[in-house]
User: Which sequence fits this backbone?
């Protein structure tokens, strides 16, 4: 018996008739065209995803990022609404048609989609839910797409996108595009919030450190906090941008941390300091600088801290810089530091009245302090007192209201 072989020639296919061949070619061409259209749509959505995420990555404010993300998300999907359900609320998005076409408020929409929202929140998958008939009717047949938005330190947000019933339903490519935009966008948003959170934590740490320093000196309670606050006020009056204001406030809060290295017997000495004791006190700006230098994120405040006792005429310390060579941030801190020292009670004298402190600042302007910054401070502080008397009364409650004591101000001006 001869074994069966597999290498027998293929059975020739039946020849196609011309009209059959035409039919097949037409079908293939149509399929190609559909694929081409789908490819083009995918490409357009990909460009949009890229454009949206690139745009929001340039924004700084989390609220702006969220609004911009949702607005563009709705536009990309051709949705009549985009609402974010998170933190127990359902917020509509400014600039989008919200749920107005459905005559529904966000709370009602949230109630209607409660189960579907919960499912998306736990699966973190973007879905086109199948709705119960009663819900579909109340939504007037609108198409619904629910997307998951990752959120920093809170439960996943759910973005509800709605399309009118007269528009095409959401399909798989809408779902994929939605997932990409919300995935990337949510991570950008989370990163910004995380940076904010770290900044806040760092600021609280800085405050705690400054308070620890003030606690060491019995007579300078709240000094660092006030210097930080006043420095920001002057920075605002000088028209500095927000980032500079933050740096100024931090430099003000931290300017005296080096006093941690000055013995308490000197800080709290009831009488005047000897020359040797004052030399010891004068080490504190450089000590502050050395304490803060290893913290990379505090680099911008270093020059404010190091030079806050430099005088306009070059007679200050630790380096003897003069005029504009002294960094502006240090010139601002110098003025408000002196004001706060003059108006606070010290171990060797009672605090001066505001009028007396102004008088001393005016006399020393151009010699000890920068004249422009001094003028700016005097104007800004007067305006603050006039416009916010309650805040002033609380923040500067310690300032003496009665007549000034003996005019011994020299040590306060020199950084004690
Ligand atoms: Fe100070
Ligand atoms: Fe100081």
Assistant:
């Amino acid at each position: 018996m001869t074994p069966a072989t597999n290498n027998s020639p293929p059975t020739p296919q039946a020849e196609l008739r011309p009209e059959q061949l035409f039919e097949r070619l037409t079908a293939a061409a149509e399929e190609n065209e559909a694929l081409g259209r789908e490819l083009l749509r995918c490409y357009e959505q990909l460009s949009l995803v890229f454009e949206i995420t690139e745009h929001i990555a340039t924004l700084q404010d989390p609220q702006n990022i969220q609004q911009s993300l949702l607005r563009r998300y709705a536009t990309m999907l051709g949705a009549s609404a985009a609402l974010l359900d998170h933190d127990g609320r359902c917020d509509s998005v400014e600039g989008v048609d919200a749920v107005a076409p459905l005559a529904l408020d966000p709370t009602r929409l949230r109630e209607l989609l409660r189960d579907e929202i919960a499912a998306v929140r736990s699966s973190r998958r973007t879905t086109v839910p199948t709705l119960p008939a009663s819900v579909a009717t109340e939504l007037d047949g609108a198409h619904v797409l629910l997307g998951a938005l990752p959120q920093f330190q809170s439960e996943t947000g759910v973005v509800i996108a709605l399309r009118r019933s007269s528009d095409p339903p959401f399909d798989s490519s809408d779902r994929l595009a939605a997932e990409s935009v919300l995935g990337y966008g949510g991570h950008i948003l989370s990163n910004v919030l995380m940076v904010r959170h770290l900044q806040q934590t760092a600021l609280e740490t800085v405050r705690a450190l400054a308070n620890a320093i003030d606690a060491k000196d019995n007579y300078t309670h709240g000094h660092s906090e006030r210097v930080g606050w006043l420095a920001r006020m002057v920075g605002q009056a000088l028209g500095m941008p927000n980032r500079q204001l933050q740096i100024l406030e931090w430099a003000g809060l931290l300017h005296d941390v080096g006093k941690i290295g000055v013995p308490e017997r000197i800080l709290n000495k009831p009488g005047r300091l000897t020359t040797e004791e004052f030399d010891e006190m004068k080490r504190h700006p450089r000590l502050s600088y050395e304490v803060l230098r290893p913290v990379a994120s505090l680099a911008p405040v270093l020059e404010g801290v190091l030079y806050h006792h430099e005088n306009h005429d070059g007679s200050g310390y630790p380096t003897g810089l003069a005029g504009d060579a002294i960094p502006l941030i240090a010139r601002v801190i110098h003025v408000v530091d002196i004001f706060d020292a003059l108006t606070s009670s010290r171990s060797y004298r009672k605090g001066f009245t505001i009028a007396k402190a102004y008088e001393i600042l005016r006399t020393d302007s151009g010699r000890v302090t920068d004249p422009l910054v001094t003028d700016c401070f005097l104007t800004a502080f007067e305006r603050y007192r006039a416009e916010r008397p309650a805040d002033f009364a609380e923040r500067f409650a310690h300032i003496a209201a009665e007549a000034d004591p003996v005019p011994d101000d020299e040590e306060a001006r020199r950084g004690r």
Observations:
- The chain is about 55% helix and 5% strand.
- Strands lie at 81-86, 89-92, 143-149, 157-163.
